[in-house]
Amino acid sequence: MRSAFRVTAVVGLLCGLVSAVAHAQRPVEEQGRALAEEHCSRCHAIGLEDQSQLPSAPPLRELPKRYPVENLAEAFAEGIVTAHPAMPQFTFEPPQIAALLSYIDSLEKK
Ligand code: HEC
After folding, report:
1. CA-proximal residue: ligand 1, atom 6 (nearest)
2. Model confidence pLDDT, tens digit, residues 19-51
């Protein structure tokens, strides 16, 4: 069961983490980009104009158009694997999730 409370808690936690990580030396979006390059780029396009290596994988820049970033946060926290079996399971720590989402979010705004 997904409760609104839980979603709020996750988002609140991530917002805290985003601001915590944003004050680190390396910009959080850069960390997210590095994570995306390492873990996602062999299937998903991770930049502003590149094509996905695996045509069925949507470019990461499209994700915020499909899902509010908060929903993505919850999906990552629960294990993104459930939605699509073609994709390997990832277990990310909350700071990594925050960094990835921050990067994905930044793509949409560019
Ligand atoms: C081995 C290939 C592969 C890798 C690596 C991969 N993905 Fe995917 N991903 C896919 C495919 C294929 C789909 C589309 C599946 C579908 O539409 O059912 C997808 C869909 C998604 C979706 C949309 C889910 C939905 O329900 O529509 C998200 C979000 C996503 N990927 C995030 C990521 C992130 C973030 C990474 C890196 C951490 C990543 N993926 C790595 C293959 C991959």
Report:
1. 40
2. 555 554 458 999 999 999 998 999 999 999 999
Ligand 1 atom 41, closest CA:
40
Percent of the chain scored above 90 by pLDDT?
A: 32
- The predicted pLDDT at position 82 comes to 46
**Cα angle, residue 91 at apex, residues 46 and 79 outer, rounded to 5°:** 85
Q: Please name the residue whose Cα sits nearest to atom 1 of ligand 1.
A: 87
Encoded tokens for 76: 């990552």
Q: Quick one: pLDDT at residue 68?
A: 83
Q: Residues 6 or more apart from 96 whose CB is under 8 A from it? A: 31, 35
Tell me which residues have their CB closer than 6 angstroms to ligand 1.
Answer: 39-40, 42-44, 54, 56-58, 63, 72, 80, 83-84, 86-88, 90, 100
Q: Determine the Cα angle at 93 with ends 87 and 99, to 5°.
A: 85
